[in-house]
Design a protein that fits this description.
Elements: H1 2-37, H2 39-53, H3 62-72, H4 77-112, H5 119-136, H6 140-148, H7 152-175, H8 180-205, H9 218-242, H10 244-252, H11 255-278, H12 282-289, H13 294-331, H14 337-353, H15 358-364, H16 369-393, H17 395-420, H18 425-450, H19 458-480, H20 483-493, H21 499-506, H22 508-511
């Protein structure tokens, strides 16, 4: 457990560093791109990016299934070869399906926007980014190979290098007015380089693996599809929940409003990715432990759930505290409506992400069938609510559609997870609500403190966040975290962090008894 924890911790830290670098790059790049190509064209770029998300469902859930089976058969050479080669072969065939989707989207382009002037450019973007998906889809099996061995460090180094290279090229090309098509070409080039690097590293860390047609197993391919078909439903419905909003806005309000919405969504998305990176490898751990009995699953689930709600609540508090001032400084006063959307997203994140630990549990125990159908229902409800509320309330209505649909199905999701691991529901929600109440209390305190001075610069925002974090974390770690989580953290951080610091934040004496 300790070795696995340390590997997950180091991998999660690197993934988080990678995300922080991505956020920093986005901090400089997003205003630069918006002001370089304009609201309308940036809205088109976001819209095409959302459309590209629908390409990813053509894997029919095979990627998650591959990662699960790789984690299970990591030390069984025969099965390992079967998983790798069968998944690669099937993904090669599915890349042809992705190519078909390119043709379909090219035909649908005029119906997705209300501005005929952008149709031709949009089609070029679809062709370029669609080609990227077709070519990289089979290579995703190598990404799963890295994840199965918890080599999130390698993936992080590649991701950091890719983002830096992409940003440099974008600045150069937009400076010389090459336009929005250059963004797609740069993305294509950088993604291809990243996947080639991932493939090389994956092959090197699996010296025991062999490759060839003889390892392809049709029967096992059916097993992958059997597991993955419900993942396919989940991924498709997730797209309905997260990507369809852009199309509703583009068609009903216009491309410029897509940009306003994208500003809030990007902050919301990065916050969610931050949580995911810090919890990286959870599915792999569950996959390795699901044969050890319900007690082990229940214990790990509660630990991960507490870590998740702690992180989500912490991030939500500071997004609400300084979000408005940050957006005004970052993008300009003309985008002040983005904060209204962000507030709704923060509430959505609290409900949705606080139950995030249920997802790897469903995948690892192969009990995600019901969740797949629920996600479809949630996606459809989100679409219907977004259209209706957009007609009534405008841009904020789109975000509210996501919020209301999310609340209903998160309660159902948690209830189902608790039944799987024989956990009393009140025990789970007691922990979640405790952290929510603590977050609201700290938000009130920090808001009162910050009201004593004006937050009108990035320096003031940074100082507010640093001081607020010290206060928030000190009280949290000493008085709010469960004894079991304190014990695990103290045990695994001992030797890496000075004991005096551990005592200061974790009340180390009581936590290690």
């Amino acid at each position: 457990m300790s070795t696995t924890f340390n590997r997950l911790l180091s991998g999660s830290i690197l993934r988080t560093i990678s995300l922080v670098i991505t956020i920093i790059i986005s901090f400089f790049m997003m205003p630069f791109i918006v002001h370089s190509i304009g609201d309308k064209w940036y809205g088109l770029w976001v819209l095409v990016g959302s459309l590209m998300g629908y390409y990813m469902v053509v894997d029919f859930g095979l990627l998650s299934a591959t990662q699960r089976y790789l984690a299970r058969y990591l030390y069984e050479k025969e099965m390992l070869n079967k998983v790798i080669n069968t998944a690669f072969g099937v993904l090669c065939l599915l890349s042809l399906v992705a190519a078909f989707f390119v043709i379909v989207f090219l035909y649908l382009t005029p119906y997705l926007v209300n501005d005929s002037d952008v149709v031709s450019t949009m089609r070029w973007l679809i062709i370029i980014l669609g080609a990227k998906t077709v070519l990289t889809l089979p290579l995703m099996v190598f990404n799963g190979m890295l994840s199965a061995k918890l080599r999130f460090d390698l993936a992080s180094y590649i991701e950091i290098s890719k983002n830096i290279l992409r940003s440099i090229l974008i600045v150069v090309y937009l400076t010389f007015d090459y336009g929005i098509v250059s963004l797609a070409l740069i993305t294509f080039f950088c993604e291809m380089c990243a996947f080639i690097a991932i493939s090389i590293f994956a092959v090197n860390i699996y010296p025991e693996a062999s490759y060839g047609k003889k390892y392809f197993d049709k029967q096992f391919a059916k097993e992958l599809f059997k597991f993955g078909k419900f993942t396919f439903l989940i991924e498709t419905s997730n797209l309905l929940k997260s990507k369809v909003d852009d199309f509703v806005i583009a068609k009903m309000l216009g491309l410029s409003f897509v940009t306003t919405y994208a500003i809030a969504f990007s902050l919301f998305s990065y916050a969610g990715q931050m949580v995911s990176n810090l919890l990286g490898g959870v599915m792999t751990v569950f996959s390795q432990n699901d044969k050890q009995g319900v007690d082990v699953l229940r214990k790990n689930f509660l630990l991960f759930a507490e870590v998740c709600v702690t992180l989500v609540t912490f991030i939500s508090v500071f997004m609400f505290l300084v979000g408005e001032e940050f957006i005004l400084l970052w993008m300009g006063e003309e985008y002040n409506q983005s904060f209204d959307v962000l507030v709704v997203f923060i509430a959505t994140m609290l409900f949705a992400s606080s139950s995030r630990a249920t997802i790897p549990l469903f995948y690892a125990t192969a009990t995600h069938k019901k969740i797949a159908y629920w996600n479809v229902y949630e996606g459809v409800l989100n679409l219907c609510l977004s259209i209706y509320l957009t007609m009534k309330l405008g841009l904020i209505g789109v975000a509210l559609g996501t919020f209301f649909s999310s609340i209903l199905f998160r309660f159902l999701q948690v209830s189902y997870a608790c039944s799987i691991i024989e956990l009393k529901r009140w025990r789970y929600w007691k922990m979640i609500i405790k952290h929510w109440l603590y977050g609201m209390s700290m938000l009130f305190v920090l808001y009162e403190i910050s009201s004593l001075f004006e937050i009108n610069s990035y320096v003031n925002i940074l100082i507010t966040c640093i001081v607020g974090t010290l206060i928030y974390v000190f009280i949290l770690t000493r008085y709010m975290l469960s004894f079991e989580l304190k014990r695990v953290l103290s045990k695994n951080l001992a030797g890496k962090i000075p004991s005096k610091l551990l005592f200061l934040f974790f009340n180390y004496t009581s936590a290690s008894q």
